[in-house]
Amino acid sequence: MSFDYGKYFGEIKLTHDLLSKKDERTWLLKPPRDGERHDVVLYLGCNVLRTSHLVETVAAVFDRLDLDYVAAGGPTYCCGIQHHRRGQEASGQRYANHTVELLQSMAPREVVMWCPSCIQFYDEVLQADLPFPKRHTAEFLAGCLDRGRLTFTQRVEATVALHYHYATEARAREGRAARRLLEAVPGITVVDFEPDARWGRTCTPALQEQLGPAVWRQMALDDIDRARAAGATHLAGIYHGCHRDQCRFERERPIVVEHYLTLFARALGIEFEDTYKKYMHLGDPDRILEDASPCMAANGVDPEKARGLVIKTFAS
Description:
The protein is α/β, with parallel strands linked by helices and 316 residues long. Helix content is 50%, strand content 11%. The strands form two sheets. Strands 2-1-3-4 form a four-stranded parallel β-sheet. It has a four-stranded parallel β-sheet with strand order 6-5-7-8, with helices on both faces. α1 crosses α14.
């Protein structure tokens, strides 16, 4: 049976509509207008829309930097890796080229990449010669911090174990950048901690299938136990997929699971509710749907489709 891309991307859109209101979004989900130009394009990828608070957070940090930028993501800007992974190499290449054309049409001096899967696909699979320089968001922000472009306004009391990936140099480099950001925050201590090597390049559903649910779950809990033994009060992931996977374990261990950018932005006075984690902890479809009702009404979400997604995502 062929993979249902419509369902896959439809679930991303539906999750996004449960967690954020259309009229409050500042990020671009459609092709840019003719003639639209920006110094920086923050390329979000697709799956980060499932954790809308992270998009709100990174956009607020970029606003604080007073950049001429636009954030763009969603299925319109698909990099093609999902097609490539399923043996549809030509389709993957076509989507990748189309997205590069959309980004390049805005004539950016730099594209800041958010998604590690997009980076992997362009760099390692396609080995693409892109028409613009690019960096991961953590590397870009570390550069801004080094140049004194960000000023902290409050302390963040946390002892953090960084859930990073080091299967490739790119992932390790991104991890080092995230660590630099956290270490700069007043009040934060980053403990020496090395996640299990079996996490590979990124946390993905495919990894869970490969390891098996029981092994995957125990690996996550063992990492948390080692982080706590090192003195950590917080476990901070680098990627949105890591956060979605790890945040559920707050229910089983006395540790706070937050994205590294959430902690960093908090020191800048920027804070958005992690609705994804809240719903993961609630687990009750009725309570989740009641809480999400303002977004559902604002976005015209079908209640039955929403219930099905909530049960699949948060109540399983």
